[in-house]
Amino acid sequence: MQIQDLKAKYSQLFPQSDAPICVAAPGRVNLLGEHTDYNDGFVFPMAIDPHILYVGGRNGSSRVRVFSLDFSELDEFDLREIEFSHQHRWANYIRGVCAQLLARGCDLQGMDIVLQGNIPQGGGLSSSAALEVGAALLMNELNGLGIDRVEMVKLSQKAENKFVGVNCGIMDQFASMMGQRDHALFLDCRSLEYELVRTGFEELGYSVVVIHSGVQRGLVDSEYNKRRSQCEEAVELLRRDLPEIRALRDVSPQHLDLVNDLPGDLAKRARHVVTENQRVLDGIAALRRGDLDLFGQLLNASHESLRTDYEVSCPELDLLVELCRGIPGTLGSRMTGAGFGGCTVTITAEAQVKELKAWVAEEYPAKTGITPKVYVFTASDGARVLEC
Ligand code: GLA
């Protein structure tokens, strides 16, 4: 994936348009804090190297033309009438961002855009968030809108909620926009206060290994929404004893006895969220002390909680986690993202990565019939304008 190729395509398709600018927006992997963002809680993701590249310029009309090099498809729409596209589903993330900008009263001009990405699809590494955040940054620059980064994050999330119709939280867009090289992002999803925390993994001889289970996240939409409403229901019931709470974020681990008394699955769901928020806080404190062992144990505990209490794992993810934990030098391993397939994240000694890859390449297909994809990611910069 090269900017020069995107630029060449841009000149070929849109010879009359303005000189373009170039924007990159990365995917993310979440280290700790799963299914906490929509509970006003804490998350700790990092932006990764794979990203979406945009090359775009103004065209002096009210039309937007977007060419995807990955799909070899051209999407075209008018800014005065933006509808959901059933034909080019990938384009809805860009259409949605345009619609949100217009809803804010921004003065958008017609644009011509070429894009390409190398974020693994369907793996829970936030290629959609990267599409949105990159589009927001590109349009902000091209139209001189002067919108600040956190506002662009919010409107990108809104594009996904309202236009694409996926009820996600704010973590993915935030990580893609605000990530920083060598750092993970500690975000309070209620106040949107954040802090970039040096992970120190590489300096201390460790790697972040992400493995795609090859299982597509089929149930994810319906089950995701179900978990969200179960959390809201749990809050309603807990308010009888804790009238001041607004979200599960406000329930401290000290009140786990009340949580455990909730009916049926609600106890399990709420217990995950309450303990996961605490794991984020403990994990960050551990990293600051350089205690990677504890950080790893918290990853393991997070997986157990997601598997048994939140029930969003699947046998393939459990198997990958087991295999990775079996490698000496692994500090911790868990599923990452929404679940029901997608990826695991593992912190393992750099010197053992080769062995881990070989072990997973042998054992995982033997037991599942699926070839896994293994990646080593370092924490990367968030969305940015590139020289072009
Ligand atoms: C998806 C959503 C996020 C978050 C995670 C689970 O990635 O887009 O907002 O809820 O699932 O932690």
Cα Rg: 21 Å
Helicity range: 40-55%
* Overall average pLDDT: 96
Describe the main β-sheet briefly. 8 strands, mixed
| Helix-strand pattern | HEEEEHEHHHEEEHHHHHEEHEE
As a percent range, the share of strand residues is 15-25%
Task: State the end-to-end CA separation.
Answer: 14 Å
Q: According to CATH, what is the class of the largest domain? A: Alpha Beta
Number of helices: 11
Looking at CATH, which topology of the largest domain would you report? Ribosomal Protein S5, domain 2
Provide the number of structural domains: 2
The gross shape turns out to be: globular
The name of the CATH architecture of the largest domain is: 2-Layer Sandwich
Which ligands occur here?
Answer: alpha-D-galactopyranose
Weakly predicted, low-confidence segments: none
Structural class, from secondary structure content? Answer: alpha+beta
Characterise the protein shown here.
The structure is a single chain. By secondary structure, this protein is α+β, with helices and mostly antiparallel strands. It folds into 2 domains: 3-199 and 381-386, 2-Layer Sandwich (Ribosomal Protein S5, domain 2); 206-377, Alpha-Beta Plaits, CATH 3.30.70. 40% of the residues lie in helices and 23% in strands. It contains 11 helices and 12 strands. The strands form 2 sheets. Strands 1, 2, 3, 4, 5, 6, 7 and 12 form an 8-stranded mixed beta sheet that branches. A 4-stranded antiparallel beta sheet has the order 9-10-8-11. Helix 3 packs across helix 5 (171-178), helix 6 (220-238) crosses helix 8 (264-289) and helix 10 (315-325) packs antiparallel against helix 11 (353-368). The protein starts with a helix and ends with a strand. The relative contact order is 0.17. Alpha-D-galactopyranose binds at residues 34-35, 37-38, 124, 168-169, 171-172, 337-338. The site of alpha-D-galactopyranose has 11 residues, from helix 5.
